[in-house]
Amino acid sequence: xxxxxxxxxxxxxxxxxxxxxxxxxxxxxxxxxxxxxxxxxxxxxxxxxxxxxxxxxxxxxxxxxxxxxxxxxxxxxxxxxxxxxxxxxxxxxxxxxxxxxxxxxxxxxxxxxxxxxxxxxxxxxxxxxxxxxxxxxxxxxxxxxxxxxxxxxxxxxxxxxxxxxxxxxxxxxxxxxxxxxxxxxxxxxxxxxxxxxxxxxxxxxxxxxxxxxxxxxxxxxxxxxxxxxxxxxxxxxxxxxxxxxxxxxxxxxxxxxxxxxxxxxxxxxxxxxxxxxxxxxxxxxxxxxxxxxxxxxxxxxxxxxxxxxxxxxxxxxxxxxxxxxxxxxxxxxxxxxxxxxxxxxxxxxxxxxxxxxxxxxxxxxxxxxxxxxxxxxxxxxxxxxxxxxxxxxxxxxxxxxxxxxxxxxx
Length: 410
Hints:
This protein folds into two domains: 7-187 and 369-401, 3-Layer(aba) Sandwich (Aminopeptidase), CATH 3.40.630.30; 196-346, Gcn5-related N-acetyltransferase (GNAT) (Aminopeptidase). The chain has helices spanning 7-15, 44-48, 50-57, 69-79, 137-150, 167-177, 201-206, 210-224, 240-255, 258-261, 270-279, 329-343, 357-360, 379-403, and strands at residues 18-20, 26-29, 35-41, 84-92, 95-107, 114-119, 131-132, 156-158, 162-163, 181-194, 229-235, 289-296, 299-309, 312-320, 348-350, 366-375. Mean pLDDT is 85; it is low at 1-25 and 399-410. A hairpin with a 2-residue loop joins strand 12 (289-296) and strand 13. The protein is an alpha+beta fold.
């Protein structure tokens, strides 16, 4: 196991209480009762912690239990092969209590290169946060800010797709309270549905508001006139061959839509294809992923790809057969998903990264998601803050204005 390399952290270690822990090298014991370690290396360090990391994610009060080492290894191999990692790890009495995986990058060239710590994630994962129990969130956030405040050797901390209220969100607030430069990029509202108790599809329809009820009844009736409607499910405890077949059928569907034509489908992008293919062929990973296909007489009407954690389903990708556009295929798929997921004990559907009218037709409940940046007091950190927060939006606006065609109304 590799310990931290940062001279700033080594000096911090010398000034604090030091303790050895499970052979992981020197750590910092905080008043919170947590002992913190910084581990640095390649993705192999994920394997060193894999068994106890899995145990932590199995805890009922770990909200994002899908953030496991297997998933992150697959993600790194597809999107960031060979990237150096920094793992910030907390223990108490030898037990793993929290882990914060970061990609360790250097951007630019000397003498103005920036050491950039960034979450090992992108838009293909729903949310990212420190992996810890909900009951530990506050003390974990306090300790992490104390670590970053004292550490040298980093300039920018960027965590993608952070939910409000979690450890990273609290870390950002603590940094702002102490006058550090912070920035929340692309804040968005994410709709979610509390799954109602229901025995039939029609009971689900009856629990929606009037205009949506009317639309669902009409479109469902019209689609039923064309043939037998079924929801085909892949993933979970199902047979791996069936799950793989459902996954391939979803890829075909998505690639035949505008997403394929505009190179946004999974099959259009090599790294995304590698990521999802590896997930569905990695033992254990496929159990958290779900494929739902709504069919009419065996032909796919619409499909969705998502994952589950605890009692929540997270929607990742959706596609529909354009021949069925007039039947509101996305709404009818969600209707059947609500019914099927509710029967299996799930209580919430997280609908993804935007609050489009189509999504908000189902719910008025949302939570905030964004990408926080925290900038160190270093010269490079201040330069990065200026370029990201000040210069980049100005340049984007100027370029947009320059290349927007002028329309004459004369």
